[in-house]
């Protein structure tokens, strides 16, 4: 995790927060549009919060790396549960990031912008002794310590955003099911460090929630997907404007759906369409009648 320095700058900063492109099942129209927006509008940085691929296959990584290296702005890439080799167990355990070679310098890399840092937090693990499958998040002691060390290196007063794949919600509200292990403690620790917000993916619907923690409130911002594996909203990405201490989020999409209608009010378990009437969906509610194909 090494920072890149930037000159002092006043005025708002604009980030594009992309997630869950899932090359292999990407929405070609949506990714062409996102790329065009990046080329035309040149945001200060792009944060991609994981699930670059569908099955961590070599051709999917080649396509992802090609698409990402063509972006002419600073980029940080987090690792999602779909990006760790599933069938090749040797690689899964001993070289889980080997297939990221072409974008190695961007993976889990801190971005230093004028008076703002985007600091990565690893939530994807190779194995979880607590449960199977291993698709949900886990903030290990080591991962949290690395993130805190990166925060401690920053000049005092630097505004901080965290980028990770899994939302940090530890328990599903409805029934207390375990989602991200150690999420509650992590949220409290980040709030106590004055973190402005946590950017995440994994859900495939956008959200913008403020969670109360014993150390104060913490903003949780989720981006939708740019893949065909939609949950209840059309493909989208977040435009995030940081203006002083204020963060403004717009869930941009090709269907002209208003941001508030794109956002869900509670974090569900994962990207799959709702299975019961209690599952949270966005007001636009475009739940696919059947699960999108997974191949
Ligand atoms: Fe995903
Ligand atoms: Fe995911």
UniProtKB/TrEMBL annotation:
UniProt-recorded Gene Ontology molecular function terms: hydrolase activity; metal ion binding
* InterPro entries, per database record: Calcineurin-like_PHP, CNP_phosphodiesterase-III, Metallo-depent_PP-like
- Keyword Hydrolase attributed: yes
Entry keyword set: Hydrolase, Iron, Metal-binding
Task: Please list where the region (Disordered) is annotated.
Answer: 263-295
The residue ranges of the Calcineurin-like phosphoesterase domain are: 14-206
Taxonomic superkingdom: Bacteria
In the record, the note on similarity to other proteins reads: Belongs to the cyclic nucleotide phosphodiesterase class-III family.
Q: What is this protein called?
A: Metallophosphoesterase
Q: Which organism is it from?
A: Novosphingobium barchaimii LL02
Q: Source organism lineage?
A: Bacteria, Pseudomonadati, Pseudomonadota, Alphaproteobacteria, Sphingomonadales
């Amino acid at each position: 995790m090494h920072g890149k320095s930037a000159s002092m700058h006043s005025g708002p900063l604009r980030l594009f927060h992309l997630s869950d492109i899932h090359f292999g099942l990407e929405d070609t129209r949506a990714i062409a549009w996102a790329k065009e927006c990046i080329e035309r509008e040149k945001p200060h940085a792009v944060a991609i919060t994981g699930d670059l691929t569908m099955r961590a296959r070599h051709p999917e990584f080649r396509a992802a790396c090609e698409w990402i290296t063509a972006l002419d702005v600073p980029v940080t890439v987090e690792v999602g549960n779909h990006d760790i080799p599933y069938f090749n167990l040797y690689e899964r355990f001993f070289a889980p990031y080997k297939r990221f070679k072409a974008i190695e310098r961007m993976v889990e890399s801190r971005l230093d912008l004028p008076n703002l840092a985007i600091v990565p937090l690893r939530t994807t693990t190779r194995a979880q002794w607590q449960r199977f499958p291993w698709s949900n998040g886990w903030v290990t002691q080591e991962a949290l310590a690395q993130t805190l060390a990166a925060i401690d290196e920053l000049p005092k007063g630097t505004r901080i955003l965290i980028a990770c794949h899994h939302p940090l919600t530890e328990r599903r509200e409805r029934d207390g099911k375990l989602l991200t292990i150690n999420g509650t403690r992590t949220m409290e620790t980040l709030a106590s460090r004055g973190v402005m917000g946590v950017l995440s993916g994994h859900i495939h619907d956008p959200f913008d929630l403020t969670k109360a923690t014993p150390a104060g409130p913490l903003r949780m911002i989720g981006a939708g997907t740019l893949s065909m594996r939609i949950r209840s909203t059309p493909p989208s990405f977040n435009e995030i404007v940081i203006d002083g201490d204020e963060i403004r989020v717009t869930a941009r999409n090709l269907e002209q759906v208003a941001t508030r209608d794109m956002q869900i009010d509670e974090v569900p378990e994962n990207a799959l369409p709702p299975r019961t009437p209690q599952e949270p969906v966005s007001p636009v509610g475009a739940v696919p009648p059947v699960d999108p194909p997974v191949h």
